[in-house]
Amino acid sequence: MSSLGKAGLEDVVVSTSDICFIDGREGRLVYRGFDVDDLAAHSSFEEVVYLLWHGGLPNKKELAAHVKAMRSTANRKIPPKMIQMLRALPKKTTPMEVLRTGISALSAFDPDAADNSREASVRKALRLTTQMPTLVAAWERIRHGKAPVAPNPRLSHSANFLYMMFGKKPTPLAEKTFDVALILHADHEFNASTFAARVTAATLSDMHSAIVSGIGALKGPLHGGANEQVMLMVEKIKSPATAGAWIRKALADKARIMGFGHRVYRVEDPRAKHLRRLATELGEQAGNTDSVRILDTVAREVTADKKIYPNVDLFSGAAYKTMGIPTDQFTPIFAMSRVAGWAAHVLEQHGNNRLIRPRAEYTGATRATYVPVDQR
Ligand code: ACO
Fold it and tell me: 357 and 200 in contact (C-beta within 8 Å)?
């Protein structure tokens, strides 16, 4: 008798976990007991990283030490040889390819690379989380023939990234928006990239290898790559006036509309409303809310037609675009946040490990007769 469930492991529970809870019917997302709505309103990405890795909110002293470590140049910097490596890559290399390659290469320089103890893995997670923005920003500058900007230890994780991208400090609204976006993307239970990271970790492979697995899975357009695709759709639609006709035709053509639908949520993704609000505020400050207006029309039509709702990827790009971030950097930015969640899951997996090795229901031949090649 077949024991096969629905395709794509839908609704299959593969493990217990204390990190993240999703209520797909209520539209709630909770990290370590804390609703993301509260974290978005009151916390910082730096504090959320602590929460995910250590299981609870830090006290004042713990937070100060953690923030100091996250901002230290010793953790944020990438070796000069990495910069040489980036310069050797073809300029057309996409930022996601650079991130996947760069994180893999960084393990060659990491003093704890071969050590899988919890202490060493937390140190590696901290370096990976703080080096990732340096790597992403360095490639942005190198591919445009500019010199990378060194990290600034006086700036928060989010402000420092925008500073390294653009060579100047961000406005308070841009810093806040970016930080909330990072909080909202930091973890999401057993999504595809986190599961990939856990499968790798469960072979007792190391933190860098698990994070590279996560990056590879995040890249696809059905997962983190959707935020780039949403912005490409907005660019095709061009203006709020043409949005209704464009999306009705796409729906009639049975197109898959990026930024909608979810394996777990049956209502609107709780992250979408925050990103819509932030994209609107930034757009108003910049005097152009066209992207959000286009997406509002698209959302109205898609939800009315298909009963599917916006997910996290619908509005994030509109905010990043207003900050001047190029579209192909949206998914690397997702990874800059999700690395915190991936690392938390690797730590949890290593804390109570068993190899993840499911079975397939075989549907091929079982007793084929081998025929030598000259007789076929
Ligand atoms: N546009 C059009 N139709 C859709 C969409 C969409 N975005 N999403 C789901 N549907 C329809 C499917 O056509 C299907 O209809 P059918 O039953 O009539 O054939 C039904 O809804 C179920 O869709 P599945 O693809 O089977 O749902 P699944 O749970 O496998 O997929 C997924 C979830 C991949 C997120 C899907 O909704 C999708 O492709 N969305 C667009 C890509 C996207 O935005 N991805 C980001 C998700 S959030 C994240 O990963 C960070």
Answer: no
> Mean of the per-residue pLDDT values for the chain?
96
Q: What is the residue with the minimal CA distance to atom 15 of ligand 1?
A: 306
- Kindly list the strands in the beta sheet with 34-35, ordered across the sheet, starting from the edge strand earlier in the chain: 20-23, 28-31, 34-35
Q: pLDDT tens digit string along 68-125?
A: 999 999 999 999 999 999 999 999 999 999 999 999 999 999 999 989 999 999 999 9
Residue ID of nearest Cα to ligand 1 atom 44: 259
DSSP-assigned letter for residue 309:
-
200 — pLDDT class (breaks 50, 70, 90): very high
Which residue's CA is the nearest one to ligand 1's atom 35?
262
The top-level CATH class assigned to 20-219+327-351 is: mainly alpha
Taking the C-alpha atoms of residue 203 and residue 349, their distance in angstroms, rounded to an integer, is 10
Give the relative orientation of helices 118-143 and 80-88 as an angle to the nearest 10 degrees.
50
User: Hey, do 20-219+327-351 and 226-323 end up sharing a CATH topology, with the first three levels equal?
Assistant: no
Contact (Cβ atoms closer than 8 angstroms) between residue 169 and residue 145 = no
Report how far ligand 1's centroid is from the alpha carbon of 262 (Å).
Answer: 6
User: β-strands 28-31, 20-23: how paired?
Assistant: antiparallel
User: Is 313 marked active-site?
Assistant: yes
Confidence band, pLDDT 50/70/90 cuts, at residue 5: confident
Fold (CATH) for 226-323: Cytochrome p450-Terp; domain 2 (1.10.230)
Q: Is 327 helix (H, G, I), strand (E, B) or coil?
A: helix
Q: What are the DSSP calls for 8-53, one per residue?
A: GGTT------SSEEEETTTTEEEETTEEHHHHHHH--HHHHHHHHH
Mind listing the pLDDT tens digit for each residue in 59-74?
999 999 999 999 999 9
Residue position matching structure tokens 């190391």: 206
CA distance 57 to 71: 19
Q: Are 139 and 79 in contact (CB under 8 A)?
A: no
Indicate which residue of 66, 185, 188, 223 is catalytic.
223
Looking at residues 243-247, what average pLDDT do you find?
Answer: 97
C-alpha of residue 229 to centroid of ligand 1, in Å: 14
Model pLDDT, residue 207: 98
CA torsion sign, 227 to 229 to 234 to 238? positive
Q: Where are the domains of the chain?
A: 20-219+327-351, 226-323
